[in-house]
Here is the input.
Amino acid sequence: MAATVIPPTPLIDWHALFQVLYISAASSIGLVLLFTIGVYALSSFQHKDSVVLYRGFNGLIVTVASVGILGMVIWGFYYIVNK
Amino acid sequence: MHNTFLLAIVVVVAVGFDFTNGFHDTANAVAPSIATGALKPRVAVLLSSVLNVVGALLSLKVAATIASGIVSQGDIILPVVFAGLVGAIAWNVTTWYFAIPSSSSHALIGGVVGAMMAHAGASSVLWSGIVGKVLAPSIAAPAFALGIAAVATTMSRRLTHKTDDTTKSWGMKAGQIGSSSLLSIAHGTNDAQKTMGVITLALIANGTVGANASTPMWVVLLCGVAIGLGTYIGGWRIIRTMGQGFTRLSPTQGFASQITSSAVILTSSHFGMPLSTTYVATGSILGSGIGTKKRSVRWSLAGRVGLAWLITLPCAAACGAVSFYGARALGFSLGVVVVGLLLAIYCGLIYVRSRRDKINASNVNDKWGEHAEAFEGPAEPDVDAENSELVGV
Here is the structure.
């Protein structure tokens, strides 16, 4: 009967460390970018002398960015608590 | 063997450690917000303390790691847990006096490991757990935070360089309030659990609960409240180092660093890694300094803090071992009382000494160097000047 060889458990869980790296990199850079774009669009939206269509476009970006940020935060809490 | 008196003392000292953990680590969540003026100092620590309690109630994965992955549970006796906590508190209070943002987590783990080695030798320490679950994440996480915050700050700065200053300042400060809140929850999630893990360890050692028992709810609530109170006291000395010392933070930098810290800490908590929130927050602040146009960071201060990080584990371990030997020499029942009193006297002396160079909510944002001579040496005013173009945003 052949003996079963159990591979040794690695000292450092590199897989988990890299998961921490890419999940936190994606979420933090994504959130900062989204927020920055929102602030940029808000700044442009406040320029009352610009074209109406351009102001509307920036208002849309502000709305989308706000919803996106809120969604990311809610998803983050859900991820931590339930996964 | 049951020893309710000893267990009660261990729980009291553990709660004391949680309290020091709170005020030692307040800076992690609030320093950037206070430094940029996004929040008033007192409002910042109040918000952070409440959210730390909330965070403490969210997850128990890190508590499980602390309770099972560091030392051999079969060899643990209550005086070991007591001595470990004494070592951690002594180191926390010392580094607080010198305004060094060192790791409360490493102090705790070092204290327990030192006491355990004094009790049962080096073989009773799970070295693979120390390396895999403590050292590796604690080295990797601040490096991740530094890199991510540098990239995030650079991208944010480039995207908004044409944005009007008022909107940018207002928007980023508003974002900082959100990110500071998230970071406070992350801190409560990660750090309050460490004390929960230690108390659980003490309960297991005393036979009060069975091995592999989950953390009782009263422990969760007690630790949550203790870390919340400690946070509200506010470790102003360390807030000052992190908010003013490493770099001059603009709202853009503060927002990027806080979001990065939150993401790294929350993700690590999810994987049950008891990393140091202080190291992550420091890494993020340094990264946000690197992300500025002039890469303005006081590396001399960062180097001194890095040196303190290196000696935290061995120094806390030495304190833990000495405390254990002291308690054992007097007989454990009398010994823990005497060692506990000595610790209280030491903490009192440190507090009295700190009043000579008082830092509080009123002067925490003073220009770097005015209160730092005692440990920092001459200030480096050129860093502020170099980075001043970003400060006003």
The longest helix of chain A spans residues 14-45.
